[in-house]
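User: Hey, my collaborator sent me this sequence without any context and asked if I could get a structure. I don't really work with proteins. Can you help?
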Amino acid sequence: MRSRILLVEDDKLLAQSLKKFLELNGLSVDVAYSFEEAIDKLDEGKYDVYVLDVNLGDGDGIELLEDLRRFKDDTPTIFISALTDIHTIARGFNAGAEDYLKKPFDPEELVVRIKARLKKQEEELRYGDIVYREGRFFKGEQEIELGEVQRNILHKLLRNRGRVVTKEELYDYMLNPSPLALRVTINKLKKKTGIDIKSVRGLGYTID
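Assistant: No problem. I've predicted the 3D structure and written it out in structure-token form, which is a compact way to encode the shape of the chain:
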């Protein structure tokens, strides 16, 4: 499954140009043209990286990130902005951004920076003595034998620790999704990994 990027940029021409270029480079991109539209997109699902403009017509991208961090959203974030003063750059990093790219920039550079963040995420995904690397899960040096569906679902749950992942989100990884099939998959994951995957009645599953 392709990594999902949320691009928040109020310059529609630039936003569409970047979206097209990023998608040509194997990324899935949703675009929000305003602060308000970004909030709506965030309600629809989880992203792997945020690319945020600082100056939005109806708000401030840095304030948006500050709000997200207060709600324990640790999604890697890259700011793009024509503002190059040290005060604004410092605000962006203090809000929790991992990177800051000054406009104008080569779209290829944005691709490189996004992919670097994605790679770092995969390298750092750990839960106790369980490590995820290169698409596989290990306990110590021993690989945990998981099917593709199980790997994808466990990766999704671990990437979203502390948040309830809805059943509908997890169904995306299954060929024949149903509440029973998902429950069986979760039980197998708990048995194979020892991870306490909690059911949230009527909603989905979570890992603390």
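In plain terms: Helices lie at 12-24, 35-44, 61-70, 86-94, 107-123, 148-159, 167-171, 179-193. You can pass these tokens on to your collaborator as they are.
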